[in-house]
Amino acid sequence: MNLDVPSASTSGVTTRDIVGMVVVGVIILVMWLAFRNFQKLVEKDDDEPK
User: Fold this and answer.
1) Spatial distance between the Cα atoms of 30 and 32, rounded to a whole number of angstroms
2) Chain centroid offset of residue 23 CA
3) What pLDDT does 43 receive?
4) Which of 14, 16, 18, 24 has the most beta carbons within 10 angstroms of its beta carbon?
5) Which pLDDT value is given to residue 9?
6) What is the pLDDT of residue 29?
7) Which residues contact 14 (CB under 8 A, 6 or more apart)?
8) Tens-level pLDDT at each residue, the chain (50 residues)
9) Which residues contact 35 (CB under 8 A, 6 or more apart)?
């Protein structure tokens, strides 16, 4: 059993690989945007005098 190599095609890059790369890219993008928005919120809270 070799789970690493997709047995459906021998051309190298499969649809599953492309989907996986897109999913990882989207996750990274969402995390990066959330991190930036979080930083902006923290900076806003620090700037406002209470």
Assistant:
1) 5
2) 6
3) 85
4) 14
5) 54
6) 98
7) 6, 8
8) 555 655 555 567 789 999 999 999 999 999 999 999 999 988 887 666 66
9) none
Counting beta carbons within 10 angstroms of the beta carbon of residue 21, is it exposed (0 to 12), middle (13 to 18) or buried (19 or more)?
exposed
The two structure tokens encoding residue 25:
């890219």
Residue 9 is encoded by which pair of tokens? 């095609």
Angle at 32 between CA 27 and CA 37, to 5 degrees: 125
Question: In the structure encoding, which two tokens stand for residue 21, read together?
Answer: 């790369």
Tell me the one-letter amino acid at 15.
T
Q: What angle do CA 23, 28, 15 make, to 5 degrees?
A: 20
- For CA atoms 22, 24, 27, 31, the dihedral sign is negative
Residue in the structure block whose two tokens are 């979080």: 38
Q: What is the pTM of this model?
A: 0.53
